Amino acid sequence: MYPVQFRLEDGNFAIHLAEIRDWLQKHRIDPGLLHYRMGKDHVRLRVEFTKPSHAAAFRAAFKDQIAEAA
């Protein structure tokens, strides 16, 4: 698996998740797993892809919208 981890800092988690799902469907990518953990003021999201090219494309598509997890 090729994981991509993010920390969603602002906005509505449901809206971010809908954008991610739309992008995945548009690009016909089915991630292996999608995990999230809700914090007080953020959400940590981990998406595991089966191909490195899918992980790279996802990271490039959302790099400006979500902050990389530490």
Q: Would you write up a description of this structure?
A:
With 70 residues, the chain is an alpha+beta fold. The chain has a single domain (2-68), classed as VC0802-like. The protein is 36% helix and 31% strand. The chain has two helices and four strands. It has helices at 13-26, 52-62; strands at residues 2-8, 33-38, 43-49, 67-68. It has a four-stranded antiparallel sheet with strand order 2-3-1-4. A hairpin with a 4-residue loop joins strand 2 and strand 3 (43-49). The mean pLDDT is 85.
Architecture per CATH nomenclature, i.e. the level-2 architecture: 2-Layer Sandwich
Q: On the 0-100 scale, what is the average pLDDT?
A: 85
Helix content: 25-40%
Count of helical regions: 2
Query: Which class in CATH terms?
Result: Alpha Beta
- Poorly predicted runs: none
CATH superfamily, please?
VC0802-like
| Largest sheet composition | 4 strands, antiparallel
Form type:
globular
Number of strand segments: 4
Q: Structural class, from helix and strand content?
A: alpha+beta
Helix-strand pattern, N to C?
EHEEHE
What is the terminal-to-terminal distance? 19 Å
Rg from alpha-carbon coordinates = 11 Å
Number of domains: 1
Oligomer: single chain
Under CATH, the topology is which?
A: VC0802-like
Please state how the strands of the largest beta sheet are arranged side by side.
Answer: 2-3-1-4
Beta fraction of the residues? 25-35%
Topology of helices and strands:
Layout: E1 2-8, H1 13-26, E2 33-38, E3 43-49, H2 52-62, E4 67-68
Antiparallel strand pairs: 1-3, 1-4, 2-3
